[in-house]
Amino acid sequence: MSDENGTPDTSAGSRDTSTGAAGTPTGTPTGRPGSPAGAGPRPEPLRFFGTTWVDHAPGLRGYAARRIAAAVGSLAAATVSCLVLRFAYEGIAIADLGSFVTLLVVVMFAVCTALAFRHTWGSFTKRPDPDRQASLRGLLAVGFVGSLLAYFFRTLTEAPGERLHRGEYDTAREQYERRSTRRTGNPSKKRRRG
User: Fold this and answer.
1) Alpha-carbon torsion 61, 62, 68, 70, what sign?
2) Which of 1, 106, 116, 148 is a good FRET partner for 186, with 20 to 30 A between their CA atoms?
């Protein structure tokens, strides 16, 4: 956490340090106009989006292009994953392990996928508990298709996690504005009433 603004300190400066494919910076300076560089809260970058979610940066490497790429990529990954799971199911059927084992495997993947979808979808609106996240790591690995689908459906409306990060960033900016307007001027030069 940054002492200056009370938000997680993930970037080194007021600019987005994430770079595009060619190594060029993708973000823009943040903070108040006229404020010195580094003053004020800094937005937390999102995976695959950097800080383009703050002002919905236009361009080839901007917010809209990244949302389209993330949606297409997550849907393609989910499709390929389903094909791999189908091959695994056919392998179990060929091995002739019995209908009970086959049913057990199918139910396990279905339940884990549903739980992974729900957990991933919920993590876009509130920060998950780290201990619970660690305990669910195996379940999320088995239900990875659910996580991919949750990511795909969220990218249809916004960058995954944008609402959560925007709320935290706006709150941090409001608090910073209140603190900075209360502390204007040099307190040692103020006249004492006497």
Assistant:
1) positive
2) 1
- List the one residue out of 117, 113, 123, 116 whose CA is nearest residue 160: 123
- Asked if residue 78 has pLDDT above 90, the reply is yes
Asked if residues 100 and 171 have their Cβ atoms less than 8 Å apart, the reply is no
pTM of the model as a whole: 0.69
Return the higher-pLDDT residue of 181 and 160: 160
Are 179 and 158 within 8 A, CB to CB?
no
Cβ atoms 111, 30 nearer than 8 A: no
Helix (H, G, I), strand (E, B), or coil: what is residue 46? strand
Token digits for 106?
A: 């199918």
Question: Under a CB-based contact definition with an 8 Å cutoff, are residues 48 and 68 in contact?
Answer: no
